[in-house]
């Protein structure tokens, strides 16, 4: 050990604080390092156009991962987000399509109606999962695995297996528009992040979530309504999946029945890389955002270097496992 | 005669902090040796070094006069040193025999497990030890006390001659504890050396022959228990004079605080009635599984009673969930702080505030200032020793953790305090402070109902005692008119 190490650990308050700094900011340093390496090795990486591109590509996964953070903080998991993305995307699209055959009667409707409907579809799926998990004590893995399949099926039934094309420009704006040059999806991600951060760090409900994830039995004896809190986190994840689904279809201009396949894996990866514990009670939405950015930056950087996307998947796998290994080592080190 | 185990000058530091400075210990064959000390005295570190979980920084360990060094518990066990841990590590879905021979199952000619031989050997071992357990039973169907006996059998199947027992009675009842002591006597007669670690002094005086005391990571003294009395031993453990162990400052009034009328929950408790008065400490004594905790579960809305009425200060109340009980001013300090009392991954401050979140966020947003003030207040009031209130509560000693739980409930300014084993796993010094907190609360007009399986504690603290037996009340007694013998007799 270095002498600095010994000096700081003489009083354990210092070592405690040091551990805290590593825990809070370690992932952020890793992110900066990654950005630094890419900035040096590729002159195109730090151009405004590319930064905007990375953020745009991160926005959908970021929004899903933030919802996933709420769920994982309570010791749960939500495997259904990718399918809910597709279902909410196609249902809302059917209200704003100008296609004569794919839309509902009277379409296209104003964007606001489609937005409400898309969110409601997500909320509905989340509420169903939440009810099954919280009231009937079915493990979250199983309940959301069921929804993964069922919502995908519902998507195919609803659209007859066909895409819903020709979305109105008004609706497409949430995916392709911008405010002062910032793409709409990035603005939506920022809003979702700020509200979620505030809820988790500053409100009563945030405390409830950490308490339920940390020790559900202690939470119950402290008078918390544990099943209601469990129910609500799936509703939140569902609502955000609905939002992500609409951004996706607005960006592509049509809602595809196979949209969002395997999106749950990237969302879980971002949460895990961001330092949230799968055993609940520990983690931050800031970490999740950085986790999502790391995945986005890595994909982008490898693209710029001209590395095939197949290799990107292998690297992402290594990154997920590596991040958790580091986390374990850090926790044992004390 | 050569001692079975001799340890000298054992040292160990964690990150620059000395957990053990001078560990000394000598164990004779055929004896029970009590290892005493408060929390943080270095007992756990001592045990973990002997079991090969941690590496020592210095010192020698002689087993049968030969220096030994273990790098894992398996190695320690192999050379004949076994530990029965506080939290048992058994495989619930396997049989008793499979647990005993885990990892060294006898094999058949074809490489499979020879279940017949294994079961026969296990049963022979259990019978020899006089344990009334079937080798083919599933582990999960055994009581905690029976699992401990299986662990002892497992240790002996490894030919262990040194057996450490870390707080073996913390999760079992009085009657089962007596069975355990009988087993220990039998081991002693076989010439084994038993190291008994416990906070419960009455047990130490009952079962052990000699003692060693650690304080602040160093050896303080040892000797024969026959040559020392209880106050003397306490003085050595704490390092200062403590005065009377139980000082009662409360006087019960005639005003009923909590009235329970024929409370029943099917299959758990039946027809329980009592009235705890304001200013009174009302004790409930009974064995594990006698329905003690179930009474509290019903009173606090964690379980639904099938019949019965509850009155608080004369008013009938209906409690369907913990939030209802809390709204009525009832607080419940549960039996196992790690399982049901604390969120170990969270900070001291957040744990103190855990039961008062709505009060601290009138507009949904948490008021940081009131959280900070509340935790500072509770830490000062109960003398909770923590470097910062944002540090994780898992880093505190057992006594301080228990005070955090008390702080969480006192923050709500309760009228009725339900205490389930309030001093379990807490050292002698912290125990006193908790007793003082309880007495002060009662003296100020609060109503206390306290469950304890420590006879001294229940007799020392309670004004009246309800004895539970098999889910029913075996009567309510004044503290003056009863004693340890009759409590044990009534409860079994």
Structure explained in plain terms:
The complex is a heterodimer of chains A (334) and B (492). Helices cover 73% and strands 1% of the residues of chain A. Chain A has a single domain (49-332), classed as ABC transporter involved in vitamin B12 uptake, BtuC, CATH 1.10.3470. Chain A is mostly helical. Chain A has 14 helices and two strands. In chain A, strands 1-2 form a two-stranded antiparallel ribbon. Chain A starts with a helix and ends with a helix. With 492 residues, chain B is of the alpha/beta class. Chain B folds into two domains: 5-238, P-loop containing nucleotide triphosphate hydrolases (Rossmann fold); 256-491, Rossmann fold (3-Layer(aba) Sandwich), CATH 3.40.50.300. Chain B has helices spanning 43-50, 73-78, 96-100, 115-128, 144-157, 174-189, 201-207, 230-238, 292-299, 322-327, 337-341, 348-353, 368-382, 398-410, 428-443, 455-461, 484-491, and strands at residues 5-14, 17-27, 31-36, 58-63, 66-67, 81-84, 162-166, 193-197, 210-215, 218-224, 256-265, 269-277, 281-285, 307-312, 315-317, 330-333, 416-420, 447-451, 464-469, 472-478. Chain B has a six-stranded mixed sheet with strand order 6-7-8-3-9-10, with helices on both faces. In chain B, strands 16-17-18-13-19-20 form a six-stranded mixed sheet, with helices on both faces. A four-stranded antiparallel sheet of chain B has the order 2-1-4-5, with helices on one face. In chain B, helix 13 (368-382) packs across helix 14. The two termini of chain B are 42 Å apart. The relative contact order of chain B is 0.11. Chains A and B meet through helix 2, helix 9 and helix 10 of A and helix 10 and helix 11 of B.
């Amino acid at each position: 050990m270095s002498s600095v190490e010994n000096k700081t650990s003489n009083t354990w308050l210092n070592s405690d604080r040091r551990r805290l700094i590593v825990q809070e900011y370690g992932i952020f340093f890793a992110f900066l390092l990654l950005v630094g390496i890419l900035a040096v090795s590729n002159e195109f990486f730090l151009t405004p156009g590319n930064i905007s591109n990375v953020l745009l590509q991160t926005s959908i996964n970021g929004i899903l991962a933030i919802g996933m953070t709420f769920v994982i903080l309570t010791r749960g998991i939500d495997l259904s987000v990718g399918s809910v993305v597709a279902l909410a995307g196609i249902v809302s699209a059917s209200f704003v399509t100008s296609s004569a055959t794919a839309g509902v009667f009277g379409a296209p409707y104003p964007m606001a109606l489609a937005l409400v409907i898309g969110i409601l579809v997500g909320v509905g799926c989340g509420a169903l999962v939440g009810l099954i998990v919280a009231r009937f004590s079915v493990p979250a893995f199983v309940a959301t695995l069921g929804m993964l399949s069922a919502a995908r099926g519902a998507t195919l039934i609803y659209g007859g297996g066909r895409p819903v094309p020709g979305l109105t420009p008004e609706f497409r704006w949430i995916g392709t528009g911008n405010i002062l040059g910032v793409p709409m999806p990035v603005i939506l991600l920022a809003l979702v992040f700020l509200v979620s951060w505030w809820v988790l760090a500053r409100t009563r409900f945030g405390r409830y979530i950490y308490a339920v994830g940390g020790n559900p039995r202690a939470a119950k004896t402290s008078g918390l309504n544990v099943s209601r809190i469990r129910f609500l986190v799936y509703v939140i994840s569902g609502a955000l999946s609905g939002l992500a689904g609409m951004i996706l279809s607005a960006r592509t201009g049509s809602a595809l029945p196979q949209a969002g396949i395997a999106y749950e894996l990237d969302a879980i990866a971002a949460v895990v890389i961001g330092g949230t514990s799968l055993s609940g009670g520990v983690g931050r939405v800031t970490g999740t955002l950085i986790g999502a950015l790391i995945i986005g930056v890595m994909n982008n950087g490898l693209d710029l270097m001209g590395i095939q996307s197949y290799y990107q998947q292998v690297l992402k796998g290594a990154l997920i496992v590596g991040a958790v290994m580091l986390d374990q080592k850090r926790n044992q080190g004390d | 005669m050569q001692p079975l185990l001799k340890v000298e000058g054992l040292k160990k530091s964690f990150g620059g902090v000395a957990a053990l400075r001078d560990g000394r210990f000598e164990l004779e064959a055929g004896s029970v040796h009590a290892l005493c000390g408060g929390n943080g005295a270095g007992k756990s570190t001592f045990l973990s070094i002997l079991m090969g979980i941690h590496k020592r920084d210095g010192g020698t360990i002689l087993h049968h006069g030969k220096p030994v060094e273990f790098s894992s518990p398996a190695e320690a066990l192999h050379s004949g040193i076994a530990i029965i841990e506080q939290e048992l590590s058994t495989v619930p879905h396997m049989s008793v025999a499979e647990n005993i021979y885990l990892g060294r199952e006898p094999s058949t000619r074809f490489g499979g497990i020879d279940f017949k031989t294994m079961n026969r050997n296990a049963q022979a071992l259990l019978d020899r030890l006089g344990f009334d357990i079937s080798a083919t039973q599933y582990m999960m169907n055994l009581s905690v006390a029976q699992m401990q006996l299986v662990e002892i059998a497992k240790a002996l199947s490894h030919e262990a001659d040194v057996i450490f027992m870390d707080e073996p009675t913390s999760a079992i009842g009085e009657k089962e504890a007596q069975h355990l002591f009988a087993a220990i006597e039998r081991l002693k007669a076989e010439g084994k050396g038993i190291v008994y670690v416990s906070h419960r002094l009455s047990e130490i005086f009952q079962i052990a022959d000699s003692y060693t005391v650690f304080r602040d990571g160093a050896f303080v003294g040892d000797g024969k228990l026959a040559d020392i009395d209880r106050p003397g031993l306490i003085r050595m453990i704490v390092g200062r004079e403590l005065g009377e162990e139980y000082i009662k400052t409360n006087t019960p009034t005639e005003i009923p605080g909590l009235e329970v009328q024929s409370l029943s929950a099917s299959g758990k408790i039946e027809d329980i009635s009592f009235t705890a008065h304001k200013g009174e400490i009302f004790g409930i004594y009974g064995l594990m599984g006698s329905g003690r905790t179930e009474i509290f579960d019903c009173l606090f809305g964690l379980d639904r009673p099938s019949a019965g009425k509850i009155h608080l200060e004369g008013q009938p109340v209906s409690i369907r969930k913990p939030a209802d009980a809390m709204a009525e001013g009832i607080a419940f300090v549960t039996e196992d702080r790690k399982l049901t009392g604390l969120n170990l991954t969270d900070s001291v401050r957040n744990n103190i505030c855990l039961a008062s979140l709505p009060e601290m966020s009138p507009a949904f947003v948490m008021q940081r200032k009131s959280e900070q003030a509340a935790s500072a207040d509770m830490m000062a009031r109960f003398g909770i020793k923590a470097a910062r209130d944002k540090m994780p509560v898992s880093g505190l000693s057992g006594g301080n953790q228990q005070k955090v739980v008390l702080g969480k409930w006192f923050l709500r300014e309760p009228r009725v305090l339900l205490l389930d084993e309030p001093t379990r796993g807490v050292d002698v010094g912290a125990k006193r402070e908790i007793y003082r907190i309880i007495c002060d609360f009662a003296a100020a007009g609060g109503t206390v109902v306290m469950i304890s399986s420590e006879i001294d504690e229940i007799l020392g603290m309670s004004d009246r005692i309800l004895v539970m037996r098999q889910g029913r009340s075996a009567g309510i007694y004044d503290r003056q008119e009863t004693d340890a013998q009759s409590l044990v007799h009534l409860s079994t």
